[in-house]
């Protein structure tokens, strides 16, 4: 089975086996497998996409999504692996990549 670097990743993964969605929005009744579904706006509550890319006009519901999107225009990859020098646009992608070097998988799924 799969192994994970953090226990929380294993817990989240186990929900894929059960299909459980324990987090329910009190406004619309939509359920989510992760609490982030509740803490991040899940439109169409308002449908508003207030953050617009000045380069292409694409709009986003969160400023962080716009910031990540803008890297597609600049090609910037500000996160560099200290072991091999490979660069990434998002820190989360670097963290996933770095496991190649550490071979760290501490939490197996039974």
UniProtKB/TrEMBL annotation:
It is found in: Nucleus. Keywords: DNA-binding, Metal-binding, Nucleus, Repeat, Transcription, Transcription regulation, Zinc, Zinc-finger. InterPro entries: Znf_C2H2_sf, Znf_C2H2_type. SUPFAM superfamilies: beta-beta-alpha zinc fingers (SSF57667). Residues 1-22, 23-50, 51-78, 79-106 form the C2H2-type domain. Gene3D superfamilies: Classic Zinc Finger (3.30.160.60). Its main location: nucleus. GO terms for cellular component: nucleus. It comes from the Eukaryota. SMART domains: ZnF_C2H2. GO terms for molecular function: DNA-binding transcription factor activity, RNA polymerase II-specific; RNA polymerase II cis-regulatory region sequence-specific DNA binding; zinc ion binding. Coiled coil: none annotated. This is ZG49 protein. It comes from Ramphastos sulfuratus.
């Amino acid at each position: 089975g799969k192994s994970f670097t953090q226990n929380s990743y294993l817990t989240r993964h186990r929900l894929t086996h059960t299909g459980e969605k324990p987090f329910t929005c009190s406004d619309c009744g939509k359920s989510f497998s992760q609490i982030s579904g509740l803490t991040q706006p899940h439109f169409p509550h308002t449908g508003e996409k207030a953050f617009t890319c000045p380069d292409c006009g694409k709009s986003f519901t969160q400023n962080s999504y716009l910031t990540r999107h803008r890297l597609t225009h600049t090609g910037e990859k500000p996160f560099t692996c200290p072991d091999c020098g490979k660069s990434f646009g998002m820190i989360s992608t670097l963290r996933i990549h770095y496991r190649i070097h550490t071979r760290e998988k501490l939490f197996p799924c039974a």
